[in-house]
Design brief:
heterodimer; A: 668 residues; alpha/beta; 5-stranded mixed β-sheet; elongated; B: 283 residues; mainly alpha; MetI-like fold; 81% helix
C-alpha cells in the first residue's frame, strides 16, 4: 500500500470576531495509505471535521502542509470527493441528474453514452434504480445519503471523504448503510476518511481510528489499528476478541477527554495550610484490594491527621487513567504499580521522559496468575504442562491479560513464562486489560488467563471460571506491589507536603497490617467508592477458600503485606530489578547511568524523614538481594551482565537517559 | 368521493344538476361569505351615496350613467387620439409596465447576481441601494421628465426604477443564501462558471428572485398609474382617471379603478403561476 495522503505539522487557526484567534488544530501529523479506511473520532468541536475539510481543500491549513500523492492540497477537487452529513443533494435535480452533474463535470471529455453508463452503474451500486427519477425531497434520509455516496463514488475519487455520513439516520438505516459502504469500499478498494461520533461505527468500518483530543489546540491523541480481518460482518465483528478492547479503548479515551475538560475548568490553586505547601490533593487509585492504604488514609482520617485536610481520591478503572492523570498533571500523586515511576522516567509514556519519584512502597505481594478453568479440566496444572499445551497448538492465538506494561503483574507473568521456556510475545499475546475487566474476559474466553492483583484471582476461582496456577509468593515472595508515585517537579515544589503524604500513607499501612482491623478494612473496601464488590471476595490474609482446594503443589494465597520488616521502604535494588525487566521486554532502554537514575527516582530520604517523624526507627534498612522461584538471586552489582545472561528477551537498548532537572529546586 | 355520484344520479335527476349540487355542497362554504361580503359593501355604498352624505356616486351609477355604460359595453372602440375604449387604455399602460418591468428584471437579476457573488461590491453598493429603494415612485417623475424630456420614456423609467429594487435586493439575498453545502459541492466538483450559475446559483436563488419579481410587479403597476396621472396627454388608464376627474365624470373614475384592481390582481396571479411552474416550493 502506497502513501496517499500526508499531513505534516498541520495547524489550523481561526480568527475570532473580537480580534483574537482560536487554535483549532495543532501539530497534526498523519499519513493515509491507498486502500485504507481511516476514521476520525473525538468530541464535538475537536476539529475532526476541520481536518477532513483541509484534506478536501475546502479550508487550508494555517501552517504545515497536507499532500495528496506528494502534491500539496491547495483547493478542492474531484479527486477528494466529500459526502456531507446533510447529503448536499441539489433538490431541483432528480437522483439521476444529481449524479450526472458530477459525472458530466468530471468526465466532460468522454462520450455521452459512457457518462450515462457510469451514472446508471452507480445508481445500481447503491440499489436505487426504482428512485432514479425521483427528486431528493421525495426520498428518505437513508436513500439521500446513498445517492450522495453514489455521486461521490461515480467520479472515482482518489480518496472518499465522509463527514459524519450516517449521523442523522436512524439506527436500522445506519446499520444497513454501514454494511453497504463497507461492501462497496472492499470491492472497489476505496480509500476513505470518515469523521464520526459513533464508536461502534468506527470499529466496524475502519482500518485505523484516529482519536482526537479536545480543542483548543486539538491534537491526535492516539491512533488505533483495527486488526479485525476483512470482509467484516457486523455480527462476527462483535465476537472478535479485539472488538471490545478496541471499543473500550476508544470509550476510555473519549471519557478521559471529557474529564480533562472538566479538570481544566476547575481551579487548581494550591491551598497552603499547617506549614504544608499544598493540602488540596488529588490522589489517584485503582480499585484493588491493594488500594487499602489509600482508602484507609482517607476513611480513617490519616490524611487529616498529618495536615492534608483537602484530599480528594480519584478512582480510575485502569492504570491508563493514572498514567494520563500524572502525565497531564491532573493528579498530585497516585497509587502506582511498582515499575511505573521508572517506566515514566525512562520514557515509557509516549517516549517522553517524565521523572516520577517514589518514596513509599505501600503494598507487597497480592498478585497471582490465573488460567482459565478449562485448562485445569484438561489437566494443565503446571507451567510445564502449560508450555506443552502452547507448543501443541501453534495455530491457536493464546492471549493473556495484564494490567499495564510497567506493572508487577506484567513483569511477574513474563518472568514466570520465560523461566518456563515460554516466550511471552511469540508463544502468546499479552493484552493490557483493566483489572476489573479480567474475569469478564476470562468468562468470555477472549483471554486464556491473566496476572492481576486481588480480588480478581480469588473471584475467578470462586466463580469457577479460572484457577490460580501460581501466586506471586511462589515466584518472587515479598515483591513490591503498589507504590506511591508522584512527579519529580511536584516533589520539588511541595517537599513538606511530600513528607506529610508519605507519613499519612505509612500510618495507614500500619493500620492495614493490624489483623484486628481486617473486618473493618474489608468492609470499607467493599463500598461503592472503592471496589464496589461483595466482601467475600476481598481478603487481606488467607481466605482458606476454594483457591486452596485445588489440590496442587503451588498453592498459597497471595497475602498482601502492608507494613513491617522494611516493607515500606523504597528499595533501589528492587527498582533496579524492575529496570532490568522493563528493558528486557523492550519497553524502555536500559540507562547506562542507572545509578544516577535510581538515586533520583527512589527517594529514600523522604521515606526516612517520614518514618523518623512517625517514630518508626526500627525499620530494617536493607532487604538484601532478591530471591526468585527459578533459583536465581538478583543483586545490584552487574545489571547489564544479568540482562545479557537471559535467554528469552527482546532486543535491549542501552542508552544514556538524561532527565530534565525540575524547574523548581528545593530550598536548602 | 366523486365515485358515489353515478348511482344516485341515474335514479333521481340529470347529471348536470347533480354535479352542480355536489360542487355546491363542497365549495358553497367558500363562496357564500365573500358573495355576502361584496353585496353588503356595494349596498352600503349605494345607500350612502343616495343619502347624500357624499358626492361620490353609488355603484349603480356605473350602469345608469350613459358614459360609463358605453365604456363598459364597448371597451374596444378607438376614435383616435386619447379617445379610446378602456381595453386600449389598459393595454397602453400594461405595455409600459411590460417594458419597464422587463428592464427592471434583467438589470435587477444580473446586477443582483454580480453583487451577491462579490462581497466587496455588496459592501460598496449596499448603502446606495438601501437609500434609493426608499424613494417614492412619484418622486422619480420630475427627475425622469427632466432627464428624458419625453413622457413615454419617462414613464417607463419610473416603472423601471420602482420595480428594480425589490428584484435586485432579493436576488442579492438569494445568492448570498445559497447553502454552503451546495457551494462546497460545486467547489469539490470544480464546476465551470456556466455550470455553477445554471445548476447551483440560479436554481438555489430562484425562490428569492421570484419573491422580488412578485413584489416588483405590484409596485410597477402602482407606479404606472401614478406616473400617468402626472404626465398629461398620453393614452393610459392613469391619465384616463385624471382626465375623467378634470371633466367631473366621477363614475368613469370608479370604473377605471375597478379595471386597475382587476389587472393588478391578474398580474400578481400571473407571476405566482410562473413561480409555481418554474420554481415550485420544495421541502
Amino acid at each position: 500500500m502506497s502513501l496517499l495522503v500526508a499531513a505534516d505539522q498541520v495547524d489550523k487557526i481561526f480568527p475570532l470576531a473580537d480580534g483574537g484567534e482560536y487554535i483549532a488544530l495543532k501539530g497534526i501529523d498523519l499519513t493515509i495509505k491507498t486502500g485504507e479506511f481511516v476514521s476520525f473520532i473525538g468530541h464535538s468541536g475537536c476539529g475532526k471535521s476541520t481536518l477532513l475539510n483541509m484534506i478536501a481543500g475546502l479550508t487550508l491549513p494555517s501552517s504545515g502542509v497536507i499532500t495528496l500523492e506528494g502534491k500539496q492540497i491547495k483547493e478542492p477537487g474531484p479527486d477528494r470527493m466529500v459526502v456531507f452529513q446533510n447529503y448536499s443533494l441539489l433538490p431541483w435535480r432528480t437522483v439521476r441528474e444529481n449524479i450526472a452533474l458530477a459525472v458530466n463535470s468530471v468526465y466532460g471529455d468522454q462520450p455521452k453514452g459512457d457518462r450515462r453508463g457510469i451514472v446508471e452503474e452507480h445508481i445500481n451500486l447503491v440499489g436505487l434504480q426504482h428512485a432514479a427519477d425521483k427528486m431528493p425531497g421525495q426520498l428518505s434520509g437513508g436513500m439521500k445519503q446513498r445517492v450522495a455516496i453514489a455521486r461521490a463514488l461515480a467520479i472515482r475519487p482518489k480518496v472518499l471523504l465522509l463527514d459524519e455520513p450516517f449521523g442523522a439516520l436512524d439506527a436500522l438505516t445506519r446499520g444497513n448503510l454501514q454494511t453497504q459502504l463497507m461492501r462497496i469500499c472492499d470491492e472497489n478498494n476505496v480509500t476513505a476518511v470518515m469523521v464520526t461520533h459513533d464508536v461502534d461505527e468506527a470499529v466496524l468500518l475502519s482500518d485505523r481510528i484516529v482519536m482526537m483530543t479536545n480543542g483548543p489546540g486539538a491534537e491526535i491523541g492516539s491512533i488505533l489499528d483495527v486488526d479485525i480481518p476483512r470482509p467484516r460482518q457486523r455480527m462476527e465483528v462483535v465476537e472478535h476478541p479485539s472488538y471490545y478492547s478496541l471499543r473500550s479503548e476508544i470509550i476510555y479515551f473519549l471519557n478521559q477527554q471529557k474529564r480533562i475538560k472538566k479538570m481544566r475548568a476547575r481551579k487548581t490553586v494550591a491551598v497552603a495550610r499547617h506549614g504544608l505547601e499544598k493540602v488540596n490533593l488529588e490522589i489517584g487509585f485503582v480499585p484493588l484490594t491493594a488500594c487499602a492504604p489509600v482508602a484507609i488514609a482517607k476513611e480513617k482520617g490519616f490524611f487529616t491527621k498529618h495536615g492534608l485536610d483537602e484530599v480528594n481520591l480519584v478512582r480510575e478503572t485502569s492504570w491508563r487513567g493514572i498514567v494520563d492523570g500524572i502525565a497531564g498533571g491532573y493528579l498530585d500523586a497516585a497509587q502506582m504499580p511498582s515499575g511505573m515511576p521508572l517506566w515514566f522516567s525512562l520514557g515509557g509514556h509516549k517516549n517522553q521522559n517524565i521523572p516520577v519519584v517514589t518514596a513509599l512502597t505501600m503494598t507487597r505481594n497480592g498478585n497471582a496468575i490465573t488460567l482459565s478453568r478449562r485448562f485445569y479440566d484438561q489437566g494443565i496444572h503446571s507451567l510445564e504442562s502449560f508450555k506443552e499445551m502452547l507448543h501443541a497448538t501453534p495455530d491457536t492465538q493464546h492471549r493473556m491479560g495484564m494490567v499495564h506494561p510497567s506493572s508487577m503483574h506484567n513483569l511477574l507473568l513474563r518472568y514466570w513464562l520465560a523461566s518456563g521456556g515460554i516466550d511471552p510475545d511469540l508463544d502468546l499475546a499479552l493484552q493490557t486489560i483493566p483489572p476489573a475487566q479480567m474475569v469478564v474476559d476470562l468468562k468470555a474466553d477472549t483471554i486464556d488467563g491473566f496476572c492481576v492483583g486481588e480480588p480478581w484471582n480469588l473471584r475467578a476461582a470462586m466463580d469457577e471460571s479460572g484457577f490460580t496456577i501460581a501466586t506471586d509468593r511462589e515466584i518472587y515472595d515479598g515483591h513490591p506491589g503498589k507504590v506511591l508515585g508522584l512527579r519529580e517537579d511536584w516533589a520539588s515544589a511541595y517537599p513538606n507536603t511530600h513528607v506529610a503524604l508519605t507519613k499519612a500513607l505509612l500510618d495507614a499501612c500500619r493500620y492495614c497490617a493490624d489483623p484486628d482491623n481486617e473486618e473493618e478494612i474489608r468492609q470499607i473496601l467493599s463500598q461503592r467508592p472503592y471496589l464496589g464488590t461483595p466482601m467475600e471476595y476481598i481478603h487481606l490474609g488467607n481466605p482458606n477458600s476454594k483457591v486452596c482446594e485445588l489440590n496442587q503443589p503451588m498453592r498459597e494465597y497471595a497475602h498482601h503485606l502492608f507494613f513491617g520488616n522494611g516493607a515500606n521502604r523504597p528499595s533501589r535494588t528492587e527498582h533496579l530489578w524492575h529496570m532490568t525487566q522493563l528493558a528486557r521486554w523492550g519497553d524502555v532502554p536500559f540507562p547506562r547511568n542507572w545509578l544516577e537514575i535510581l538515586e533520583r527516582i527512589v527517594r529514600v530520604d523522604v521515606y526516612s524523614t517520614a518514618a523518623r517523624e512517625l517514630g518508626l526507627l526500627d525499620a530494617k534498612f536493607t532487604r538484601g538481594s532478591i530471591h526468585l522461584f527459578d533459583g536465581t538471586d538478583f543483586d545490584a552489582e552487574d545489571p547489564i551482565g544479568y540482562l545479557n545472561s537471559l535467554a528469552i528477551k527482546r532486543d535491549i537498548t542501552i542508552a544514556d537517559v538524561l532527565l530534565d532537572r525540575p524547574a523548581v529546586t528545593v530550598a536548602a | 368521493m366523486v365515485t358515489q355520484a353515478p348511482s344516485r344520479t341515474q335514479t333521481r335527476s340529470n347529471p348536470v344538476i347533480s354535479s352542480i349540487q355536489q360542487f355546491w355542497q363542497k365549495r358553497g362554504g367558500d363562496i357564500i361569505p365573500p358573495v355576502i361580503g361584496i353585496a353588503t359593501f356595494l349596498t352600503l355604498w349605494q345607500l350612502i351615496s343616495w343619502s347624500g352624505i357624499t358626492r361620490l356616486p353609488g355603484p349603480l351609477s356605473l350602469w345608469t350613467d350613459t358614459r360609463t355604460r358605453e365604456l363598459m359595453l364597448y371597451p374596444f372602440y378607438d376614435l383616435g387620439g386619447l379617445n379610446k375604449g378602456l381595453f386600449w387604455q389598459t393595454l397602453a399602460s400594461l405595455g409600459r409596465v411590460a417594458q419597464g418591468y422587463t428592464a427592471a428584471a434583467v438589470v435587477g437579476i444580473s446586477v443582483g447576481v454580480f453583487v451577491g457573488t462579490n462581497p466587496w461590491f455588496n459592501k460598496a453598493t449596499y448603502p446606495i441601494f438601501q437609500f434609493l429603494r426608499m424613494v417614492a415612485p412619484l418622486a422619480w417623475v420630475p427627475i425622469a421628465l427632466v432627464a428624458l424630456q419625453q413622457n413615454q420614456p419617462a414613464a417607463i423609467f419610473v416603472i423601471f426604477i420602482t420595480a428594480v429594487w425589490p428584484i435586485l435586493i432579493n436576488t442579492i439575498e438569494g445568492v448570498q443564501q445559497i447553502p454552503e453545502d451546495y457551494n462546497n459541492v460545486a467547489k469539490v466538483l470544480q464546476l465551470s462558471r456556466k455550470d455553477y450559475y445554471l445548476n447551483i446559483l440560479f436554481p438555489s436563488a430562484l425562490p428569492y428572485i421570484f419573491t422580488g419579481l412578485r413584489i416588483a410587479i405590484g409596485l410597477a403597476w402602482l407606479a404606472i398609474i401614478a406616473a400617468e396621472i402626472v404626465m398629461s396627454g398620453i393614452v393610459g388608464i392613469g391619465f384616463f382617471i385624471w382626465d375623467a376627474y378634470q371633466q367631473n365624470y366621477i363614475s368613469e373614475i370608479i370604473l377605471a379603478v375597478f379595471y386597475i384592481g382587476l389587472v393588478g390582481l391578474l398580474l400578481d396571479r400571473l407571476i405566482a403561476f410562473l413561480q409555481m411552474k418554474i420554481a415550485p416550493t420544495r421541502n
